[in-house]
Specification:
The protein has 176 residues and is of the alpha/beta class. It has seven helices and seven strands, in the order H-H-H-E-H-E-H-H-E-E-H-E-E-E. The protein has a single domain, classed as Rossmann fold (3-Layer(aba) Sandwich). It has a seven-stranded mixed β-sheet, with helices on one face.
Length: 176
């Protein structure tokens, strides 16, 4: 059976004892560049597993979207994202929101783009995430995995820099 998921462990740049390196984060500029090339205006962006919130804040700060929401279930990373957000100006603070919870409890429907660096998700979580994207994403969703169930919506693959390695594939799926 083909393994569709990737993780920082497979790239070798992984420190088992540093939990902040485990989740990984996309370079904010790379995410902004991807979104700026979309054929739709991105007003509402959702980052599932938002970590410390860097990419969501970068998008709002640089005009990649009007509103960004991050969902994070790790208490430390959720709290850190709010500390980092509090250091931004009011114009950013009013347009970015972080929620401490799991993605299963929130609808993907209101968002133009749903993004997830799902390399840390286990098979069960990825299966739930993919099904939720298929059921609820109305426009575009971005994953770090090439998902067989999503192939009918496959749009393109681009290379990005992530906290664990440069030139990592992300897969963009677009619903008609």
């Amino acid at each position: 059976m083909t393994k569709w998921n990737i993780s920082p462990k497979s790239y070798g740049a992984y420190d088992e004892h540093n939990l902040n390196n485990v989740y990984g984060e996309i370079n904010g500029f790379d995410l902004w560049k991807i979104i700026s090339e979309f054929p739709i205006l991105v007003e509402r962006f959702l980052d599932v597993g938002s970590g410390c919130g860097g990419p969501a804040m970068y998008l709002v700060e640089h005009g990649g979207c009007v509103y960004a929401c991050g969902i994070e279930n790790n208490k430390y990373r959720y709290e850190k994202s709010n500390v980092l957000l509090s250091q931004k100006g009011d114009h950013i603070q009013q347009k970015v929101e972080f929620i401490e919870d799991t993605f299963e409890n929130h609808s993907f429907v209101p968002y133009d783009v749903v993004y997830c660096c799902n390399t840390m998700f286990d098979v069960y979580q990825n299966s739930k995430l993919v099904q939720k994207c298929l059921n609820e994403c109305m426009n575009i969703f971005i994953l770090f995995t090439l998902e067989p169930r999503c192939l009918q919506y496959y749009w393109k693959c681009v290379k990005v820099s992530a906290s664990w390695k440069d030139n990592v594939n992300v897969f963009i799926y677009k619903k008609p």
